[in-house]
Specification:
By secondary structure, the protein is an alpha/beta fold. It has 2 domains: 97 residues, Udp-n-acetylmuramoylalanyl-d-glutamate--2,6- Diaminopimelate Ligase, Chain: A, domain 1, CATH 3.40.1390; 115 residues, NIF3 (NGG1p interacting factor 3)-like (Udp-n-acetylmuramoylalanyl-d-glutamate--2,6- Diaminopimelate Ligase, Chain: A, domain 1, 3-Layer(aba) Sandwich), CATH 3.40.1390. 36% of the residues lie in helices and 27% in strands. It is built from 9 helices and 13 strands. The strands form 3 sheets. A 6-stranded mixed β-sheet has the order 7-8-10-11-12-9, with helices on both faces. Strands 2-6-5-4-13 form a 5-stranded mixed β-sheet, sandwiched between helices. The chain is elongated and about 55 Å long.
């Protein structure tokens, strides 16, 4: 067991939530418990996640996508109902959005590069990472590594050379960054999802793109935070898998 404030302070430090500009409100979003015996870790702050957290006896839920954004009105009352459920069931909520994408130690984008054998060496477009493989690999081989490591079924836009060395990754909805990847000479761009018009950006830019799923590319960060909390504070943690299929 640990005091909530101690857990929050550690998360703030490890993730660096104050150092990355974001539309999301990062850090503690809902205070509903004083102490923490069990932490749930999941990608999305939604009722499906909350119900599973309740069944597991979690006092704190750590998420990537929280329930509050800066300047966004809760016109449908969804955020209000979510917060009310958490308070009623004494489950605090902690969110780390772009800071968790960017984190070298825990972040999604550094993880995606390491997963395929590339070393994250340079920040890409604010929160992503680019890096190089030791030697050229086929796009098909990289796709297999991503699919196995993430438990996903990627879509490939193969508009570049069949073998690549320079890779960049932006998890989640990173399709808008394809143009920047072309500008920087990236040979393979890995992201979660893209818009239809991004297809033509990739085609005309002659770049390979792997779309591995928004959800699937954004689970590694919260899992890594869970391991960190277990190691540093001895708290029990559980990953709560609530896939969207997107």
């Amino acid at each position: 067991m640990a005091e909530l404030d101690r857990v929050v302070k550690l998360l703030n430090k490890e993730v660096g939530v104050r150092g990355v500009p974001d539309v999301a409100i990062n850090g503690l979003q809902v205070r509903a418990s004083r102490n923490v015996k069990r932490v749930g870790l999941t990608t999305d702050a939604c009722m499906d996640s909350f119900l599973k957290a309740k069944r597991l006896g979690c006092d704190l839920l750590v998420v990537h996508h929280g329930i509050f954004l800066k300047g966004k009105r809760d016109i449908a009352g969804i955020a209000k109902r979510r917060a009310a459920f958490l308070k009623k069931n004494h489950i605090s909520l902690y969110a780390a959005h772009l800071p968790l994408d960017k984190s070298m130690r825990y972040g999604h984008n550094a993880y995606l590069l390491r997963l395929v054998g590339a070393k994250p060496s340079k920040i890409f477009n604010g929160i992503g990472y680019s890096g190089f493989l030791d030697k050229k690999m086929s796009v098909a081989s990289i796709r297999k590594l991503l699919d196995k490591g993430l438990g996903t079924k990627s879509v490939v836009w193969g508009f570049g050379n069949g073998k690549v060395r320079k890779i960049a990754a932006v998890s989640g909805a990173g399709g808008a960054d394809i143009e920047e990847a072309v500008r920087q000479g990236v040979e393979l761009f890995v992201t979660g999802e893209a818009n239809s018009w991004n297809y033509y950006d990739a085609k005309e830019g002659k770049i390979n793109v792997v779309l591995a799923g928004h959800y699937k590319t954004e689970t590694s960060g919260v899992k890594a935070l869970g391991k960190m909390l277990e190691k540093k504070l001895g708290i029990e943690t559980s990953f709560i898998d609530v896939p969207t299929g997107l």
